Amino acid sequence: MPNNHILWLDSMNKNDAITVCTDKTQNLEMFVTNSAFYSLSNYQLYNADDLFSNIGNLDSKSIISSSPTMARSLKASSGCFTLYKTSESSQNTQASILFKKTNNISNNNCIEKDTVFLPSIYGDNFEISSKNSGSCKMIILVGSAGIPRIWIAINETTPNSKYTFTDLVTNKKLFDLNSSEVSQWHTLGIYTTALSITVPPSSKISLTASNSITRKYFKLFR
After folding, report:
1. Source organism's superkingdom (predicted)?
2. Which CATH superfamily groups domain 107-220?
């Protein structure tokens, strides 16, 4: 299984369950977006590979965020998470969940502690930098009313650097972007719930991201 597994919660049916585990060399962390309008109480989370160690539902206060622009998250002490949908939702939740496997080496390549970002509808500024020891990955995660999409404008990059954009839903590389080409790009829209940007060693990227284009957001990109 890839190091990142993304799930659109509305794709689950009643009594569906998904279990994600790591081996002893990795850590497992879960990130979840808020529902656009509705509760996530019908999604029960277990800190195990079975249905016995219940943490609570996805609205649980144990799943926390350091700021509104960071996805709510929780680490698995057992090395496994199981997500179980107890009932159908009265309305689509329009939320997504990311299971991320990491090891201490890859985590240490990022200067910033938080690397999974949750942009608002009006747009937020994000920046991430890598050490000279290796590349660092920024992840933009969205839950969205309507079609899931991520809109970005790149504000600053490190000269002579190449950045890799990957759709985490399909785990396929979308394209590489050289820092010398950034001025040729304006508003960039990608239809996905999770986008990864790999920053090469000793480099950084600064961008503005939103989960929707609004009139206010258009002004940001002029």
Report:
1. Eukaryota
2. Spermadhesin, CUB domain (2.60.120.290)
